[in-house]
Structure formats: structure tokens, C-alpha cells
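FAQ: What does a ligand-bound record look like?

Like this one, built around calcium ion:
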Amino acid sequence: MKTHARLYASFSTILAPAFVGGLALASAPAAAGGVTAGTLIQNTANASFDEAGGSRNVTSNTVTVRVDELLDVTVTSRDSGPVTAPPGNAVLTFEVTNQGNGPEAFRLTANPSVSGNNFDTTVRGIAIDSNNNGVYDEGVDQILTAPQTTPVLDPDARLTVFVLVTVPQTVANGQRSDVALAAEAVTGSGAPGTVFAQAGAGGGDAIAGMTSALATARGALTTAVATVQLVKSVTLRDPFGGTSAVKGTVATFTIEARVDGSGEVRNLTVTDPIPTGTTYAPGSLRLDGNPLSDAADADAGAVSGGSGVTVNLGTAPAGARRSVSFNVVID
Ligand SMILES: [Ca+2]
Ligand SMILES: [Ca+2]
Ligand SMILES: [Ca+2]
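The answer part, i.e. the structure of the complex:
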């Protein structure tokens, strides 16, 4: 038993310096991809023993291992769901994370032609979040030039990336389109374990990790398209209390503007010429039953002999129903 105890003691004496070597290693920052690439792991064994006349100490040679660089990357969509977008420009938000253990830049590719799309967007560019606020700021956030490549990211560093797309004018309401963003390590990608000799940080090898150093994520958008329909009707009141169309009959025209779909329309303007053979009845212009002055002034409506009735409804959301009416008298 005593022999065993001494044996254990000897082991711990031998292992202790090796563990000290391990502590030196632990001071190097450990990323998701492990110990930082280029770190030198050194190990020297030590033995002590008693000899006649005193204790002695011997050390082994030192073994040095340089940590290779693992290339790993992930891409995620940062949108909470499909982005609702009218025709025109839209932005999809992604995050690229360096999951490797060395500094690495990543080449970005946005593919708008994803299988299953109702329509495809046009990619206008890829931008990085230069002011780091999580949202795209036109003129502030840098639009990458080809080949679109991120700055060098430290291990574990994340970068917000924006894919700028254009939704074509021809889309219908509620259609969906996905855009795929791929990020590939500039050093290279390949099956896990693929070696790029001496291409790693600190002069070691770079090795494709479990992500193959290539990752893709999809962002989605759905279209919000508002449509406008005008429905016009007329009622007649003749001088005899009937509904015939004779000289002196008052014709009341009503134009209903119906906004459907989703989203909104802006600067919605309804115009209607005064029909030939009639004369506008001054002061008869109404919007949703409320009078508007004939003059071109602060209210939404105006009437002139040349251009007839004009009513500017401004921005109208989907579901809006606005009614414009006016009277004319048959000449
Ligand atoms: Ca690298
Ligand atoms: Ca920004
Ligand atoms: Ca007016």
C-alpha cells in the first residue's frame, strides 16, 4: 500500500508541471471554435526522485503544438418573420457569426431566386451595419462592392448584414419571396476536415470545421399591395319631383373610392370633369358627406370649369372607403 501511495505521489509530481503548462494555455481566449488559432501549446514533463545523498530532478524535452485554425461560420435571419413590403425597396436583415477560432472574413452572396417563391426580388446590394444599430441606414451603412466580403471578424464576432432588394411593381397582394444569404470563409470552404495548408492564423493550417466554412440562411418577405377601385353612381331629381333627365334636372354624382388589399396608397386623388351639357352647382362638393369649398384652398377639394372636380384624399390605408359627391344641373 505504501508503495502505491508513493507511486501516486510520484505521478502527481510528474503531472503537476504539465498541468502548469495547461494553465498557461488556459490564459489564451477560448472561442466557440476552441483555443485561438496560432496558440502554442507547450508541455514539459518533470520527474523527481530520491537518490543516495539527496533528491534529484529531471525534465523532459518540451513538446510544442501550434493550434490550427478552424473555419466555421453561421448565418441567421434577424427578421422576426416575413418582412411586409409594398412594391419598391425593402431590406432583409441577417447576422453572420465567425464560429471559428481565428480571424476570418466571409464572402457574401445573396440569391433571390429561391425555389417556391411566388416571385423573385432584385438584389440591389449587400450592406453591413456600419453604425451597429441593427437597422439599415441609407447613406450610413456601407454597401459592399464586389466581391462582397465582410471585414475580418474575430473569433465569435457577429456582424449584422442587410440584403437590399426591390419588389417588382407587378406583384399581387400577399405574395411571398425568400432570399438566401450565403457566407463562405475567404480562406476556403469544403467538407469538414478539408485542410488549407499554412493558411491559418499564426502560420498553421486552416481546416474547414463542422459547418464546412459555408453557411446559408433565408429571409422572407410578403407583399403588401393596395388596390384602388372607383365606383360611380348618379341620382336624378327633375323639376317636377321625378327622376327624368330634362333641362333643370339636378344630377348628383357620387364617386366611391375603395382601397383594398393591404398596406396603403399615397396621394390618392379623385378627379372628375363636369359633363358636357351640364353646369356645376356651386357649393355642392362633398367628401364623405361633409362640404368642401369650391376654391383651391386648404381643404381637400376644388372645382374649376377647366379641370372639373379634384379631391385629394392623401394617404388611404387598405380597407378605406371615401365618398366624393357633387351636383350638376342639366342645361
Ligand atoms: Ca483566418
Ligand atoms: Ca445601421
Ligand atoms: Ca376647397
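Follow-up question: can I read anything off the structure? Yes, for example: Residues 2-26 form the longest helix (25 residues).
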